[in-house]
Amino acid sequence: MKPARPQRPNRASRRPRLAPEQAGLPARRAALRLLDAVLRRGLALEAALDQAAAGLDKREDRALAHAIAAEALRRLADLDAAIDSATRQRLPDDAKARFVLRIALVQALAMNIAPHAAIATALPLVDGGPRRLVHGVFGTLMRGEARLPEAPQLPPAVADRWRGQWGDHVVDAAQRAISAPPPIDLTLARAEETEDWEKRLHGESLLPGHVRLPAGTPVPATEGFAEGAWWVQDIAASLPARLGGGGSGHALDLCAAPGGKTLQLAASGWDVTAVDISESRLARLRENLERTGLGAQIVAADLLEWEPDAAADLVLLDAPCSATGIFRRHPDVLHRVRPAIIAEAAQLQAKLFDRAARWVRPGGLLVYATCSMEREEGEDQLAGFLDRHGDFAVDPVLPDELPDGVYAAPGGWLRTLPDMLADEGGLDGFFMVRLMRTA
Ligand SMILES: C[S@@+](CC[C@H](N)C(=O)[O-])C[C@H]1O[C@@H](n2cnc3c(N)ncnc32)[C@H](O)[C@@H]1O
Question: Where is the active site (predicted)?
Fold first, then answer.
C-alpha cells in the first residue's frame, strides 16, 4: 500500500490566519477615515461612508466602522475631555493621536468592546505617529476607570447656539436625546389600519397613521415593509405633509426626494408632482413608490429654474437645510454645521420659498418645512416671507393635528424641539408652517 500523501491545505486554510486584533483592523481604519472626513473635511457621515469603507469585504465591517464613527461623534466632547485630562500638553484638535484615541476610547467606554481589543486595533492606526503616547493615555484612562457621562455633552459651539435660541432646558433635552438611539417611527400607507399595525408590530401609535417601534428594530425584516404597508419616517418629519390635509387636487412636492412626504401625499389622495434636483435621491423615491404601490409624477430639475405648467392646490416645500434637527440619527451635523453653512442654506431657502409661493393657486395652501433647529431656517424665513408676500397668511396648526405633548407656537407655526415627547422617545427638530394664499 502506498503511503498516504500529505494532504494539500485548501485555499482557505493556506491563507495566513489573522490574529483577532488584525482581523478587526480594517473596520477601525475605515472608522478613522470616516471621522477624518467629517471633522477635517466637513463631509456628512453617510456621504463619506462609501469611500471610507471601500475595500471592506464584509457588511459587518462596514456597519462596525459606521457605528464606531457615529458613536465617537455623538460623544466627541466627552472623549476629548477625557483625553485632555490625561495629557500634560493638550493635543491639537486635528492630531492623529487624538483621532486614534477617540476611536479606541469610544469602543472601550461606550461600546462594550474589551479595552485590550480596542487598543490593539487602534495602535496600528497611528502609523508613524506617537504610539507610546496613545498607549500611555489610553492606559492611564483605563487604570483610572474613566467613564463617560450618561448624557453626552454637546460641542460647546452648538450648546451656546441652541442655548441662545431655545434656553438651557432644550440643551439639556438635546443631550439626553443623544444618550440612547432614537426609536423608529413608521408612517402607514392606510391610516385606518393604525390599531391593526400597532398590535401586529407591538408598537405604540402617537397619531393616526403612525406607529413607533423600539430603537434597533431591523426594518426590512419587519412585517409589512416588503409589501409597502409603511415606510420609516420620524414623526416630526411626517407632520408637514399632514398639514396639507387629505386632498383631491394637485399637489407639488418640492425638494421631494427620497420621498417620505411624496408617499404621504399620494396615500392621502393627492395627485402629486414630486420635484428634486438629485437623480440619485430620486432613484430612491422611485423605489419607494414601487414598494408601496403609490404613484406620483417625478421631475428631476433645479427649482431655481424649473416652472410648473399650472398653479397647484397645495405646494409643499421641504427645503434643503443644515439638518441640525436630525442630530440624533446624524450626529455629524453637530460638528460640521457652522454659522456660515446655516446662513448659506437660509439664502437658498428664501429663494425657494419665493418661487414656491408663485405656484400656489389663490385659496390654495403652501407648507414650508425644514429639519433644522435654527431660527434662521425657520421663524426668520417665515417673517421675511410674510414681509415680502402680503397675499399669504398663516393658517394656524391646530392641536388635533398634533400628537399630545407637541404644541404649535402662538403665531400658528410649529417648532419641534428635543424636549417634546421626551418620555416617549423624542422627535426630530423641525420648523413648519402652513400658509394660505388669500388673493
Ligand atoms: C430635506 S431634503 C428632502 C426630503 C424629502 N422631502 C422627504 O420627505 O423625503 C431636501 C431635498 O432638496 C433637494 N434640493 C436641494 N436643492 C435643490 C434645488 N435647487 N432644486 C431642487 N431640489 C433641490 C435635495 O436634493 C434634497 O433631496
Answer: 371
CA dist 283 and 69 (Å) reads 27
Taking only the tens place, the pLDDT of each residue in 31-81 is 999 999 999 999 999 999 999 999 888 889 999 999 999 999 999 999 999
Q: How far is the CA of 382 from the centre of ligand 1 (A)?
A: 19
Distance 291 CA to ligand 1 centre (A): 21
Residue 371 annotated in active site: yes
Q: Where in the chain is the domain with CATH 3.40.50.150?
A: 235-437
Closest C-alpha residue for ligand 1 atom 2? 320
E-only strand ranges, 301-401: 312-318, 360-370, 392-394
Strand order in the sheet with 230-232: 210-213, 184-188, 230-232
First-last CA distance in the chain? 103
- Please identify which residue in the block is written with the cell numbers 409643499: 316
Residue 112 pLDDT exceeds 90 = yes
Feature table: binding site for S-adenosyl-L-methionine: 255-261, 276, 302, 318
CATH 1.10.940.10 region(s) of the chain? Answer: 14-143
Residues 6 or more apart whose CB falls under 8 angstroms from that of 327 comprise 174, 177, 178, 333, 334, 373, 429
Q: What is the CATH number of domain 14-143?
A: 1.10.940.10
Mean pLDDT of the 85-95 span: 95
Query: Between 279-292 and 260-267, two packed helices, what is the crossing angle to 10 degrees?
Result: 40
What is the reported pLDDT for 17?
Answer: 52
CATH number of 235-437: 3.40.50.150
Give, as one character, the DSSP assignment of residue 396.
Answer: P
Q: Which residues line ligand 1 (CB under 6 A)?
A: 255-261, 276-278, 281, 302-304, 318, 320, 371
CA–CA distance, 180 with 174 (Å, rounded to integer): 11
